[in-house]
Amino acid sequence: MIPRILIATTCVLLLPATACSQAETPPAAAIETASGELIIRDRSAAGSASLHQGREGVVIRIEADDLPQDARNQWHGVHLHSIGDCSSEDFTSSAGHINPSGRQHGLLNPEGPDNADLPNIWVDGDGSIRAEVYTTRVSLNGSDALPALLDEDGSALVIHAGSDDQTSQPIGGAGARIACAVITAT
Questions:
Q1: Domain Superoxide dismutase copper/zinc binding spans what residues (predicted)?
Q2: pTM for the model
Q3: How far apart are CA 104 and CA 168, in angstroms?
Q4: CA neighbours closer than 13 Å in the CB half-sphere of residue 152
Q5: Which end of the chain has fewer CB within 10 Å, C or N?
């Protein structure tokens, strides 16, 4: 049996460098779409979120029906949360906003926005939502400059009880979490 060190030395001396290097794992194919089932606090399905990676950002489509009576005919804050977990009754298992750079909350905040900030959405009188928003502050796969929605612990889309004022901390006064969707690759 030849000692391991001798094999390595022989490889370096006798073979081109590329022949000795370990085979590189090809990069995983970039994920282009993701989705999540939107649930409300009673754990019933209320709709869905679909996400599509674009060249410079992510398009998020939110569709829901029959949201609770007290959520109707008003604006609601929507944010991307840092953990893909909607298991707790109040959806706090999704943790806080995706915000690796520590920026202030709010699309209108001069010290913001953080990566999780999205525009408000409207819930109609029948409890339905049909909205599409675009963000350049995250990506499905991540990059040197942007956090990944589909990282190791995932992420969630959360709808809050009230409108986000887009400036105050930490969530623009948007209130409790009323709906949540774990984002997964499709």
A1: 47-183
A2: 0.83
A3: 9
A4: 0
A5: N
95 to 26, 34, 99, 154: CA distances (angstroms): 33, 20, 11, 11
For 71, list phi and psi in degrees, rounded to 5.
Answer: -100, -5
CB 180 within 8 A of CB 156: yes
Number of H helices, E strands in the chain: 2, 9
When pLDDT is averaged across residues 38-61 and rounded to a whole number, the result is 96
Q: What is the CATH number of domain 33-185?
A: 2.60.40.200
Torsion of CA 80, 158, 49, 117, to 10 degrees: -40
Give the single-character DSSP code of 139: B
Domains of the chain, residue spans: 33-185
Residue type at position 86: C
Place of tokens 């930490």: 170
Task: With cut-offs at 50, 70 and 90, classify the pLDDT of residue 46.
Answer: very high
Q: How many CA atoms lie within 13 A of 142 on its CB side?
A: 12
The strand pair at 45-53 and 121-123 is best described as unpaired
Query: Cα separation of 112 and 79, whole Å?
Result: 14
Local confidence band at 29 (pLDDT 50, 70, 90 cut-offs)? low
Residue among 178, 184, 150, 146 nearest 79 (CA)? 178
